[in-house]
Design a protein that fits this description.
single chain; alpha/beta; nucleotide binding; 2 domains; 36% helix; NAD(P)-bd_dom_sf; Gfo/Idh/MocA_oxidoreduct; 377 residues
Length: 377
């Protein structure tokens, strides 16, 4: 097994790509990874220029994932990339991940993991066959207070769960959706690049993942009502999904036409003995509700938190941590897996989360298409 920093590559994430910056900051944060190269851009020359700006060895800039796999595997094991991050549009996730796993690399992949549930299930089998680690960057699971919420629910702090309510509202598509030509310029509204869903496949998926991650329950039935706004618009931009998780019931509300909203992700879980609330725009605050008692506020960095929460906190109490820190915790968990170190349960989302997510997306679209009916998940 290699020692030292994990040699790491990227597919996509080049000049001007915010998500690429997020991944690089997250990886550098724990000082566990070293970026050594990648295929950063569909334009090879732009990729080389980007690598020069980062002072990387341009000999390890590749024109394609196939070239990367071929050339990296020629290097001594101690020098070659061990893990590669996929930060490209959705339609490239599956073929790239499949090639990397077959080529012997661990994979960190943006969500959604694939374009279809069948592809996701194939990747799940391939991960098992190749004995590689696969991390899906559901970033919000990396927030310390989300992990505290998960731990408190598992410890029975709020009792048997009765209701789950998750909201994820953005407004960024609103300036594009109302004009036909502008709609054509948004790749997330193109089924060939985005898949069968825009809003639910992008942010509704995060809401679904958080519901299952924090509660430890699985959605077993759902009913959806999606909004496309215009007949010539092929993908949803807004929607509501009723969910059942065993005895518990709930709702997932997602919109990318919630005018003026930025990144309003909120989860509320109510049990027999109490409730917990967390909002991504105020991520250092977890609120506990109990009947007849004052609200209790939990904040990161304090010793009353769980071990998983403390291990996920980098700063002293009162110093806010944000989205880069959350993704950094996921990269940290993946590093532990690659280096075969002891880790906490739930430190990073796996290929199984990717399969659940793709099944959710397809069932949501099916429920809406079939007339807003209940469907088993």
């Amino acid at each position: 097994m290699n020692k030292g920093r994990i040699k790491w590559g990227m597919l996509g994430g080049g000049q001007g790509a915010f998500i690429g910056i997020a991944h690089r900051i997250a990886a550098y944060m724990g000082e566990r990874y070293e970026l050594v190269g990648g295929a950063f851009d569909v334009d090879y020359d732009r990729g080389v220029a980007f690598a020069k700006a980062l002072e990387l060895d341009t000999d390890r800039v590749y024109a394609s994932v196939e070239a990367l796999i071929k050339e990296e595997n020629k290097l001594p094991k101690s020098e070659r990339m061990e893990v590669v991050s996929i930060v490209t549009p959705n339609f490239l996730h599956y073929p790239m991940a499949k090639s990397l796993l077959e080529g012997g690399f661990h994979v960190i992949c943006e969500k959604p993991m694939t374009m279809t549930a069948a592809e996701a299930e194939e990747l799940q089998e391939l991960v098992q066959q190749t004995d590689r680690h696969f991390c899906l960057t559901h970033t919000y699971t990396g927030y310390p207070m989300v992990r505290q919420m998960k731990t408190m629910i598992a410890d029975g702090e709020i009792g048997e769960i009765q209701r789950v309510d998750v909201q994820y509202y953005q407004g960024w598509i609103n300036p594009f959706i109302h004009e036909k030509e502008k709609r054509k310029s948004v790749w997330r509204l193109d089924p060939a690049k985005s898949g069968v869903s825009c809003c639910m496949g992008d942010i509704g998926l995060h809401a679904f993942n958080l519901a299952e991650y924090t509660t430890g329950l699985q959605v077993d039935r759902l009913l959806s009502d999606l909004n496309y706004l215009y007949e010539d618009n092929n993908l949803d931009v807004d929607g509501t999904v009723l969910i059942r998780m065993g005895k518990a019931k709930g709702v997932i509300r997602s919109s990318q036409i919630a005018t003026g909203e930025e990144n309003n992700l909120t989860i509320q879980v109510y049990g027999k003995d109490g409730g917990l609330k967390w909002c991504q725009e105020h991520p250092t605050v977890l609120t506990l509700l109990k009947e007849g008692k004052p609200l209790q506020v939990f904040k990161p960095g304090n010793p009353y938190n769980a071990q998983l929460t403390m291990d996920s906190t980098k700063m002293a109490p009162g110093h806010p941590e944000g989205i880069f820190d959350a993704m950094g915790n996921i990269y940290k968990g993946m590093a532990k897996a690659i280096r075969e170190e002891q880790a906490f349960e739930g430190e990073y989302p796996t290929v199984q989360d990717g399969v659940r997510g793709m099944q959710f997306i397809e069932k949501v679209v099916q429920s809406n298409r079939d007339g807003n009916v209940w469907i088993n998940l």
